[in-house]
Amino acid sequence: MTAAKGKAKDKAKDESKSKSKSKSAVKGTSAANSKSNGKSNSKSNGTVKGMIVGEDKDKGKGEDASGRKGRAEGGCGGRGGRGAGTVAELVQGQWGDQRVGVRCGGRRLTHHELAGGAAARAALLGELLPRGAEPHIGVLLDNVLEYPLWLSAAALAGAAVAGINPTRRGPELMRDIRHTDCALLITERAYMPLLAGLDLGIPFSERVLIVDDPAYEELLRPYEGASPMETLAVAGRRGVEPGTRMLLYFTSGSTGAPKAALCTQGRLAAAGRSLVGFLGVRPDDVHYLCMPMFHGNAVIAGWAPALSGGAGVALRRRFSASAFLPDVRRYRATYFTYVGRAVQYLLATPPAPDDRDHPLRTGFGTEAGAVDVARFAERFGVRLIEGYGSSEGGAAIQRTPDTPPGAIGRPAPGDDLAVVDPETGAELPRARLDAAGRLLNGEEAIGELVNRGRSSFEGYWRNPEATADRIRGRSTGGRVGAGWYWTGDLFFRDTEGFFHFAGRTDDRLRVDSENLAAAMIENILARYAPATGVAVYAVPDPVAGDQVMAALSLREGTGFDREDFAAFLAAQPDLGTKMAPRFLRTVAALPVTATNKVHRVALRRAGFRCPDPVWWRPMGRSARREGAAGRGDLGHLGYRRFTAEDRDALLDVYREHDRLALLER
What we know:
The protein is an alpha/beta fold. Helices cover 30% and strands 19% of the residues. Helix 10 packs across helix 11.
């Protein structure tokens, strides 16, 4: 029995019936929600009664940047200080801090209330978790108040949060929950229909908690007043340590089946501490979390540095480009995290004269591309910092003040990073760039990024094959590279030692025996003014190798002008002879995963057999003739509409060469 539970029983001994009361309350919650029609309830009722500060009556009325009052140090010292070794210590450091710690819509909690709410949930977890079960909590929620509360509760309890992707369905969703051995599932009414009929491997009536049902509030009531300073560990009844498991978060699934990467409390606390210094996080900052919290982007790069630096967070249930600036102004947000596609969505919104009227200073993320970074800074006056750190923790690159445009930076301290041939493990030559920063020797310089030194990779949950693949040798006999961390990402390194991102290894194309990186072609096509988004991917050539296909989203009201596009391609000095897309698909919007990354698997599988308009350069010309064409000759770049007759004739060529099955990969 925990101390918190004992206090709750003394407080309500005639009203409570020990553990059976808790279980009946959970059952009541489930029963109440079995009648749910699946409609979203935006009121986020599931906070402990009395912990809500109240409605936001001061929208944009000149509070300090976080809207908070109270202790200025805000968790930057004492037990929750910057040197904390665990996330639990950081949560404990919020106790007594009366400044606003989180805002979501019209609701807000102080840091103190966050810590208290986390302690109450940790005590409840200790009551509900079966003896011998893995201390894993599945969280199937949008970005609502309950998400950071349960992250903090798991930290105090020595448990781990498995972020469940709400865009998954049926067997895939069930697989994610069962694969991560969730002993408890936290969800909301809107997602109840997704769970109908699924065998989750846990008693639905006892251990599925629905946070926007009144019965959930009643379930938590006996634990009000719990302190985060008490020992609430449930993981084998031991205390919380840096090596205690904290997160099981799935990879994005943009290029394959998602894997559950492990992250301990020590690694998450260290990541937050590092970003506090790197980003200059201040206690009066507000981190706007609009990327989904079931993924590492928002938690590791957004929530963790806010917790470590004593800053506040503002939550957006789901990313919205149109609501971005209104939210930033409302919450006085100073920082946000992003992925490249989200930046493209923001740039696609109609320009307004007050685009620079906001408190935002910095954005931090990946895959925005040099063109979009420059456009974002010019339009919104906000510096986007392109970082690199594999979500698994195996390698990190830090931007330094002297990092040139287009580069990511240099290795983080302690990392021995190199760009190597993925087949032999041999380090590749340095890249040569022209005066405009364009790559001149991509064929020999682009390879896979590896960390040959000590890495913080902690493996994948119950997936020893994928774990071994990250650290195994890649040369003949598996000797060279054994023990290195293989990132799966393509990079090149310039003569000054700066690393440049060139795409995923899965995004590499081989055209006429030449290796190409999709990201390099995307960077070129992104310069095309009418385009709001670009994705480049491989489709199988009907005879051998690959052909380049690109999906292009255009500004609203803009049609595809094939002659204008051909002229644009001909004017690009760094467009190699094999880089021009053979097929071009025009779309209203690029398909994305739940983490707003381009869904390349979907694009590749659809190929040129898709419902959207497709344009192509017919394959009658030889590669030699195309390569010899001068820049003034646009004939080899001429596009025309890809018709049903073209498709049928091309498929016959695939059949002749027994390559039709490759189109289904």
